[in-house]
Amino acid sequence: MPSLANPGYQERNTKGIFALFCVGSYLLSVSYGTTFLLAMSLSAHGASEADAGSIMSAAMFSTFIAVIFSGHLTDLFGAPKTIAFGAVLLAAACAGFACFPTFGLAALGFGLLLGLGWGVFYTLGPIIVAMMIEPARRVKYFALLSGCMMSGIGTGPLLGRASEAFGYPLRAAFVMAAMASVIGGVAFVLLGPKIKQLHLVSGAVTVCRISPQAGALVMRSKAAFAIVMVGLGGAIFGGLSSFQTSYAHLKQLDYSIFFLGFMAAVITCRLLVAGFIVKRDPYRMAGILTSLIVTSVLMFMFTVDTAATYLFAAIVLGVGYGLTYSVINGLAANEAPAGYNAQSLVLFSLAYFVGVFGFPWLAGLIIVSQGMGALLSVILLIALLNWAIALGRLVWRRLPRSQARRFDPV
């Protein structure tokens, strides 16, 4: 039997295990993607966009719990089994959305389950990659993981469109997502012993437990800018994606066009372009890419009226959002205080969850009270603020050192 000490065998073994890991990650991500169908599903049963936003805000709170305690669960059960437990929660949430399509306490409970499951997976997935892959090759494998997750997220709403096309009710998409989560959970259970073997070869990886003191230290550093930016970017993504079905209905367009264009752009950029972008000046790249997000929001407001313009706006958003995330993720790690990179990345994830799960609550209220146009105006303001932070950092860096020091975080 070949030994793990053999580099050639070890690399082939790692690739095979990582391939199954990517399949499992894709299957779990489908469940989160189906949440973009909640607004349409609830509307069909007398609820509103505000109710869909409330469910997403419930997911935000439980996600915090999952992120904070995932390290303790990993110590007790191991990362793969903890993710498998998260898969069960995701399956239960999707099954609940399928069986109870009306708004109420049950729906809020399923939102809590969704946040717990997704928070555990989103936090521990990269840690498992670090357990399997040596540091020199991790950037490539992180990009592959991100591409698989975005593929799964994009598949969720497309399942809804396919269900409608074949004459099935929308709840069929939630049922399929629940089944995908169960299969994905089984994959992680099977991967557990193999990942543990690779972990012994690749070296120790610690799971971060963040404290208030560590969080305060990170937020007083330059990494705070990237953390704020990912929260704003998450709000833009969450606001547009969670209510894209309502937007498409208003424009009499097919919402699947948005998800196809957006996800194809994000996946392509992260897999093929991100490796080049992250080697460039991150401040300049952030300024350029956030301007694309502003441009895309303006397109959704003023130019989208055909399938072609709808697709183009989605692609521009996907390029800007997909690459901005990669750039500021690197800044969050590189600009953290010495020895606090992991804590900075945990805060980065938490800020993302605040935006992607928390903002839809406000977005739903805005749609109900003021309409879709008002929501797009608010999203434009958020995008402009994000762009202003990126440009401000670029200008700040060009100031003479004595002037820039006045505004430097402590």
TrEMBL record:
UniProt-listed Gene3D superfamilies: MFS general substrate transporter like domains
Ranges of residues in domain Major facilitator superfamily (MFS) profile: 17-395
Transmembrane segments: 17-40, 52-71, 83-103, 109-129, 141-160, 172-191, 223-243, 255-278, 285-304, 310-333, 345-368, 374-396
Tagged with keyword Transmembrane helix: yes
Keyword Cell cycle: no
SUPFAM superfamilies per record: MFS general substrate transporter
UniProt entry keywords in alphabetical sequence: Membrane, Transmembrane, Transmembrane helix
One MF term in the entry's GO annotations: transmembrane transporter activity
PROSITE patterns (alphabetical): MFS
Pfam families reported in the protein's UniProt record: MFS_1 (PF07690)
Superkingdom of source: Bacteria
Name of the protein in its database record: MFS transporter
Organism: Pseudomonas saxonica
